[in-house]
Amino acid sequence: MRWWCVLLLAATAAFAPASPSAAAQQAMINADAWSAYKAKFLDASGRIVDNGNGNISHSEGQGYGMLLAYLSASPADFEQIWYFTRTELLLRDDGLAVWKWDPNIKPHVTDTNNASDGDMLIAYALALAGTAWKRNDYILAASRMAQALLAEAVVRSAGRTLLMPGSEGFGAADRDDGPVVNPSYWIYEAMPVMAALAPSDAWKELSDDGVALLKTMQFGPRKLPAEWVSLSGAPRPAEGFDAEFAYNALRIPLYLARGGITDKALLNRLRTGMSQNGVPATIDLTTGRPKTVLLDPGYKIVNDVVACVVDGTRLPVSALQFAPTLYYPSTLQLLGLAYIGEKHPECL
């Protein structure tokens, strides 16, 4: 175990707080903000409740919750969320999590497919917490999930390394237009940690190819990536999905920035394309028209982060005030604030 602990420490040193213990860990999210988030979205069982989606829980939300608990230096909350995750979602034989848990039906899990972004978030959070808090059980669990991801969801196709959104239903054997990917599933900041947990050149290739693909995904008048993209031939919006830049895609610029990928041309193209009068929106890629303008500070902070990275623009006061509303934008807001506080305090 010791050798990959050393690799993990090296991989996380560039962007994770260098903290030998929970007591010494510097919180990237302040206590009041985390308390407000918990009160709104974390129930007593340890599940993160997606109140904008029928109060379901999913592997993405559990991974986000664990990451935010780590960034808040809250090991007890982290363990609570991890307990639900490992007992209610880690039901598959391959070591990955089922993607959805619905409180309104029994059994609560009816679709056992995984979501690779949720798996990566969970493994990433476990690795960071295990390193900071000297929890070898967390690091071991993270290593198992990273190895399972590498085996089940990271594939080579047409000379590129891709992240399948799930282990079933998206490959060339599953769909006429396969492989189909979701570019918002690439969590760039996690890739070096995945490489430490499950050593392989594929992780660096996955990160590099993700950025390269984003540069080619310029669909419609606004030159934006689609939520779901077919890679059978030249990239194009996948069949059976709306050709839109939707809610998942909004986090792509934030993931790029948090992952240290500060290509100004790419970030500016995404920010310009996804905005209506400076405000993020979901976009119909065919017409270029906005479908829903998103005024929540949690959505707007994505553009605020890009403006800080590209132009050194300070965040507006509204971005600094955290009043949780819906699970998803509230999560994005805390991730954005944590990143700016750590990497760009000059923008506060």
TrEMBL record:
It comes from the Bacteria. Residues 1-23 form the signal peptide. InterPro entries: 6-hairpin_glycosidase_sf (IPR008928), 6hp_glycosidase-like_sf (IPR012341), Glyco_hydro_8 (IPR002037). Keywords: Carbohydrate metabolism, Cellulose degradation, Glycosidase, Hydrolase, Polysaccharide degradation, Signal. Pfam families: Glyco_hydro_8. It catalyses: Endohydrolysis of (1->4)-beta-D-glucosidic linkages in cellulose, lichenin and cereal beta-D-glucans. The keyword Signal applies. GO terms for molecular function: cellulase activity. Its EC number is 3.2.1.4. One of its GO terms (biological process) is cellulose catabolic process. It is an enzyme of class 3 (hydrolase). Gene3D superfamilies: 1.50.10.10. Belongs to the glycosyl hydrolase 8 (cellulase D) family. This is cellulase. It comes from Rhizobium etli (strain ATCC 51251 / DSM 11541 / JCM 21823 / NBRC 15573 / CFN 42).
